[in-house]
Amino acid sequence: MNAGIEGFLQALNAGLLLGAHYGLMCVGLSLIFGVMRVINFAHGDFMMAGMYVAFHLFALLGLGAVFGSAAGPFIAALLAAPVLFLLGYLAQRLLVSRVTGTRVGALEGEGHYAQLILTLGLSLILQSGGQILFGSVPVSIPSDISSEAWEIDLAGGDVVVFVNQARAWGAAIAVALVALLVLVITRSRLGKSLRAAADNVQAALYMGIDVDRAHRITFGLGIAITAVAGGLLASSYPFTPYVGLEYVIIMYAGVVLGGLGSTVGAFWGGLLIGVIQQCSALLLPTQLQNTAIFVVFLLVVFLRPQGLLGRVSERT
Amino acid sequence: MDDIRKMVAPGRRALLAGAATLAGTAAGLGPARAQAPAGGTVKVGLLVPLSGLYARFGQLMRMGAELGVRHVNEQGGVPALGGAKLELLLFDAGDSTEKAKNAAQRMVADHPDLVACSGAYLSSFTLSATEVTERAELPMLTLSYSDLITSRGFRYVFQTSARAGDQAKGALPIMLDLAQQATGKRPETVAILTDNTASSLSFVQPVRDGAAGFGLRIVMDETFTPPLSDATQLIQKVRTARPDMMVMPITVISDVKLLVEKMNEFGLGRGRVPTIGAGIAMAQSDLLQNIRPAQLEGFITVVGNWDAKGQEAMIEEFKRASGEPWMGQNSIATYGDIWIMRDALQKAGRADRRAVAEALRSIDITEGAALYYPGRRVKFDATGLRENAPPVVVQWQNNRPVTVYPRDSATAELFWLKR
């Protein structure tokens, strides 16, 4: 057995699969920031809500019995999206819209202080509300494939790579969703209105675009995407109402790495974080896995402040 | 302005109460003492996390304590105090050492008539809470494992479990002997895989320091920061090292799932690499909602307390009342703590925290409360550590964790795969 090569391939494989999940989370956050210029501190907690919705839909609809416990968790994750879209849509309509869009002109610091306080408040409400509603017992969506792997023999069986089936399917769904989102943003009328609202709110209004509606859809969509990412992880990762805290920093790092406001960049940022996190354990003590992420993060900020795919120039 | 006054008012009252307590202390009177009237109630406290990340563990401790209070009261309360009933007061230690300390401060300021308390789940919480209870001369019983708890010269803290380091020193030779009996060959290599929490590090330190003395060679030694996002790299290292056994103390449920499932995925689970953990996470009932129990078969964990022969009726009642599939160390320990408090009150003859502490220092019982502690004897040494508290070894067998050591408490035999 060639331990060195096998270890590297195993780390790369784990990093790519996990990174695709991170990437999807980052895309949701990036979409909201890119279009609305809102730093959503409650994003991890909306992801938590998505995980619980997927968990309960799986049980209530008997998705395990209908689709099998291999496919059922993924169906549950996808079904959580419309529920969380609605939640995000309403949250934007009732709360976030008061400190964003055309109202920011009347607020101090272009509304950023109010946005910060509001989303932090939402985060606390979601965590505490989650604990009241769902309790503190860690749960996960039961899956037959969360501990099953495809064994890939290389070099005549000298090197064996285990590809976790749940993570692999989750990563494939994440990539497909990002591709679909890019298509929607670049090719559809809806995408055009979102891009117009992102580029210049006043100009978009003058052109007859309903910016508030664009923002509502953006917020709902961003949260729904991240909720799916959470749902995809929910079969291999036990979660509690506080799980958002564990991922929100990774989401921010991924979004900044990829380039603030760049949807595709956010996906690559998340993917890169997954790879760094897993491969760093080959060279550094495992305790420093997350430290390695932020060392690379700081290097990127230092050498390329706009991120991997971010734009250098200011928006018009 | 009125709103501000309303917000300030309770704080001012608490401040005045605190000032009064301080004034009393300065005058040499000590904190206010309660003398329970015959047939009245005596207040005892439970300081555990009831909100935040660790709320689940606090809830389990609460269930055990509430059952203990009910049983004590049903069985006549404290006869020496005219049959006084116990009243349990709950205090939320939250999810940080700061919150635990603040809760302890509220507990001693608002309830000067409290005679004893139990808590505070995490060793770090217990260490900070006991800084407060020590000054208030309030006896605190704890299951927390850290070696530091009873090594600070404190007089009002009583540690009922074996300390983490002692658990490893006590359990490892037993494991090695059993392995030799089962396989005819003593394990020669060991992998250490631990998170970096205080109790886990205390557990692995004697293994690191004394591996050679146990006849073991360390072939892998990895420490990680919980919670893990993926266990692939760690288990890949185990696969490469091919140890005869693994020491793996883990404190977070999500890490248990990731590691156990990855071991099974890599063909190392279900006893193929005999694995010894430490602490409750590896035997928590919550695992049933997250891992197929068959995947846990054979995993061993060393804990401070677990169910034992002779507790069957109480455990059945607990299961019926709580809906839990078994009664783990957190619930049994607080149940037992309530009985120790009752025995101490009985010995003290008055509802006075200093007298209760004095009774705890001199208590030596092998019946009653002692039934709920491994070794079945409750006697504290000068530091407050329970003397000769043995480690309890628990192993997953037939989809549930069962006690396999000490032998007088064991409900099943330990098994070690022959290959």
TrEMBL record, chain A:
It is found in: Cell membrane. It is a multi-pass membrane protein. Its main location: membrane. One of its GO terms (biological process) is amino acid transport. Keywords: Amino-acid transport, Cell membrane, Membrane, Transmembrane, Transmembrane helix, Transport. InterPro entries: ABC_transp_permease (IPR001851), BCAA_transport_permease (IPR052157). It comes from the Bacteria. GO terms for cellular component: plasma membrane. Coiled coil: none annotated. GO terms for molecular function: transmembrane transporter activity. The chain crosses the membrane at residues 20-39, 46-68, 74-92, 168-186, 217-237, 249-275, 282-303. Belongs to the binding-protein-dependent transport system permease family. LivHM subfamily. This is Branched-chain amino acid transport system permease protein. It comes from Muricoccus pecuniae.
Automatic annotation (TrEMBL), chain B:
InterPro entries: BCAA_transport, Leu-bd, Peripla_BP_I, TAT_signal. Keywords: Amino-acid transport, Signal, Transport. PROSITE patterns: TAT. GO terms for biological process: amino acid transport. SUPFAM superfamilies: Periplasmic binding protein-like I. Residues 41-397 form the Leucine-binding protein domain. Belongs to the leucine-binding protein family. This is Branched-chain amino acid transport system substrate-binding protein.
